[in-house]
Amino acid sequence: MSKSSTILQVHDICRYFDEKEVIHNVSFQVEEGDIFGFLGPNGAGKTTIIRMILGLIKSDSGTIKINNYDIKSQFLNAINKVGAVVETPTFHENLSGYQNLLLIKNLHPELPKSRIDEVLEIVGLTSRAKDKVHKYSLGMKQRLGLARALINYPKIVFLDEPTNGIDPQGVVQLRELIVQLAIEEKITFFITSHILHEIEQICNKVAVIKGGHLVAHGYVKDLLSKEVETVDIVTEYKKDALKLMKPLDFIEDMVEIETGVRVSLKTGHSGELNKLLNNHLQVDYLIPVHQSLENVFFELTGGGKNE
């Protein structure tokens, strides 16, 4: 198996607005074929960082490289194999899907006209290529936006809230298409979304931004396999349970819930806790709480808010 290559490298970038530092020494990298989720509360700095990556604004320090080209000093080379789909792609509504893509193809004279048919087939719009775009559903427009982003054989595609407004079937189709392109074409995807369940299902890596700081970066599976597990203790004797667990050094956090107490504890100690509780008070159940990306996100960002 060949070693993956770095498609996007962000190193120690900072950005100031009115002498206030809003992005603080952010570094991460994205490899070929990654489906990379970029997460953070509103106002965390996601949009600013993406604008710097795409060369729309400049970082005040640090470096950004796409396909090993510096975005400041080698902008045209860096951006040459980049595709993007904004939240709601806009088109010439009275032109067909094919005609809209032809306008983009004409900006790339080196591309064969057959590339239009190729990308329409990739996104499943061949049968609707001659229909005017105003007849397209929102999901079809999103797929046409992806076709437009793919037309120049990109190495990396930026997707901003790609499932916004799409029906559940359309979401599944888009997700399957992204995974297929990442695996078969080795296209890297950089996805921003507020739907954490979708990110967990599709992305292999994520970065989490809070207040302009990078607070987490890595494989989704590693973020979910934390050293702390969460258990719901179902009991009528909440106060007694809290008092009993307070001195235990493997307990990280405790909070009362409607059915009892929710406990965060170091992984591997739930059996010990269960035995201790059952020896001292009546416990109905110990229920493990599934660790989701949403749980991790809210822990990292303090409830999804910037400080």
Automatic annotation (TrEMBL):
SUPFAM superfamilies in UniProt? P-loop containing nucleoside triphosphate hydrolases
Domain (ABC transporter): residue spans on this chain: 8-236
Classification via Pfam families = ABC_tran (PF00005)
Q: What PROSITE patterns does the annotation carry? A: ABC_TRANSPORTER_1, ABC_TRANSPORTER_2
For this protein, what is any one GO molecular function term?
Answer: ATP binding
- What keyword terms does UniProt attach to this protein? ATP-binding, Nucleotide-binding, Transport
Q: Which family does it belong to?
A: Belongs to the ABC transporter superfamily.
Q: What is the name of this protein?
A: ABC transporter domain-containing protein
**Naturally occurring in which organism (per UniProt):** Anaerobacillus arseniciselenatis
